[in-house]
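Sanity check. The docking grid for iron/sulfur cluster depends on where the pocket ends up, so I'm generating a full predicted complex first rather than guessing from homology. Inputs follow.
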Amino acid sequence: MYFTNITGGEPFIRTDLKEIVRELYKLSDRIVISTNGFFTDRILDLCKEFPQIGIRISIEGLEKTNNEIRGLNDGYQRGYTTLKKLREMGMKDVGFGMTVQDKNAPDLVPLYNISNEMGMEFATASLHNSFYFVESKNIIHDRPMVAKNFEDLVNELLKSNSPKKWFRAYFNHGLINYIYGQKRLLPCDMSFDTFFIDPYGDVMPCNGTKDKEVMGNLNRQTWDELWNSPEAEVVRKKVRCCNRNCWMIGSVSPAMHKYICTPLLWVAKHKVKSLLGMKYSMFENPICCDYRDGKVSKADLDKLSTCDLNAEINDGLSDDSKEALKGKRGEDIVNADVVEQGYEATKAETNCDIDIN
Ligand code: SF4
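Predicted complex below; grid placement will be based on this.
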């Protein structure tokens, strides 16, 4: 694999994360962990062993906005402190990750500027609904306001001298297209060359589908059996007709590499325009003009989104995971796992067997 993203929930809750990363590095060229940055010591400790790893700390805006959205009183300070410490220890691939919504859109460019001053990466996303997020009611209400903030960010990114940032500008241009519920700018090939594995061993095309679409399970199948199974083929057929039009970096980054001509042409055109002092405008997206001119209504756009106020949220558990949970509560499994993890860690340190009872 050329790239692996470890996400959550919160990955650093797991005390065996180091072992997972160690195993993954045998299979993957690049690894990035998305985290809320709360467990500073655990993050620093992992980075000491893997200085090449990427860390993205989710910060949802400036201090007040972030803490309100995340529900953590000192969330911003902890995330910011972790990032600073990572920088001080010489970590190169570290940065912010921000999920943009109505509440925090005005903080988008100010947060980008902070990350720039710190010499960090700045990754963006917007609201999605899926079984994985256990949410179906996420929606952007004031699309022109949010799009205007993305437009400002695109112009900031195009001003820079970094080609990576110019392609980020294209990604953010795609986010404007996404929040207006339009067709993806690039095809989605999830399940063909990219996949998602959950903690139960279920393999899926992505984490953006409405219901969990399982290709197979790694606890009972080998990778080759799973990847070439009839179940995997059924899922691939569904992906080919998928109309959710997600625009998350996990599915867009591979598409940008694969269909490089489209982003490349966009970048070339807009970088030249930027050098000539001409700014990118959100109204390059025809739908933004149609909405401004009253040709489509807010209700029309809401219908195009994946927001479904009546949806029944699937709990994300496959038959395999339901079987594993039979007669147990989730907490029992987690507690047993924590005891097991503690046992394994102590065993590794002392290199001898210990009776955990
Ligand atoms: S558009 Fe792609 S990433 Fe989104 S749900 Fe469909 S298959 Fe998954």
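Relevant for the grid: The beta strands are 4-6, 31-35, 54-58, 94-100, 121-126, 196-197, 202-204, 216-217.
Also worth noting: Residues 188, 190, 205-206, 208-209, 239, 242, 244-246, 251 surround iron/sulfur cluster (CB under 6 Å).
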